[in-house]
dTDP-4-dehydrorhamnose 3,5-epimerase (Fodinibius roseus), 183 residues
Amino acid sequence: MEITTTDIPEVLLLKPVVHRDSRGFFLETYREEHFRTQGIEVHFVQDNVSKSRRDTVRGLHYQIEQQQDKLLTVMQGAILDIAVDLRHASPTFGQHSAVKLTEDNKHQVFIPKGFAHGFSVLSAEALVYYKCSAYYYPEGERGLYWNDPKLDIDWQVDEPVVSEKDQNQPLLHEISKEDLFYE
Ligand SMILES: Cc1cn([C@H]2C[C@H](O)[C@@H](COP(=O)(O)OP(=O)(O)O[C@H]3O[C@@H](C)C(=O)[C@@H](O)[C@H]3O)O2)c(=O)[nH]c1=O
């Protein structure tokens, strides 16, 4: 397992060892000690799967109160994964990481608490599997408008497919102080 940083030092890119043989391949999608050796204490409690068609943009989402670390794996297709830093005192506040995760490269991304997360779909369909360190908590669910020009994110999609909820999320400067992260 190779672990490197992205444009945001706390958002990690993971490259699992892929064991290939005549049957196909095998890889470990999660191994706790890999995080512990990075000094990260994480305990995942919920796993999610979503399937989306080309040009879908999901996000940007985060939870307050029950904050979530996330570990993403793409099982089929290809996505561009985005994490926006919402930690008020961070030198990279408002900046984002952008990582391509595909069924071919088998890379994963770890997004810690303090980030809004989203992804766009670059293939005909994408099946995304991710682990979360806190349960889904709708009352604490918050969003950031995916296409806020201030974020300057190139989602690499032509005709974005976006949920009604995500079309109505606030711009970064509209987010109240209570809905940002402080540590
Ligand atoms: C996220 C979530 C949704 N749901 C329900 C609520 C709703 O009826 C339906 C679809 O929810 P959404 O439209 O919010 O799904 P989606 O847009 O895929 O939401 C996800 O987006 C990505 C980018 C993330 O980072 C995730 O944490 C999550 O927020 O599923 C759950 O039951 N549990 C969950 O954990």
Residues 2-173 form a domain with the Jelly Rolls fold (CATH 2.60.120.10). The CA atoms of residues 11 and 41 lie 14 Å apart. The pocket of dtdp-4-keto-L-rhamnose is lined by residues 48, 50, 58-59, 61, 117-119, 136, 163, 165 (CB under 6 Å). The chain has a mean pLDDT of 97.
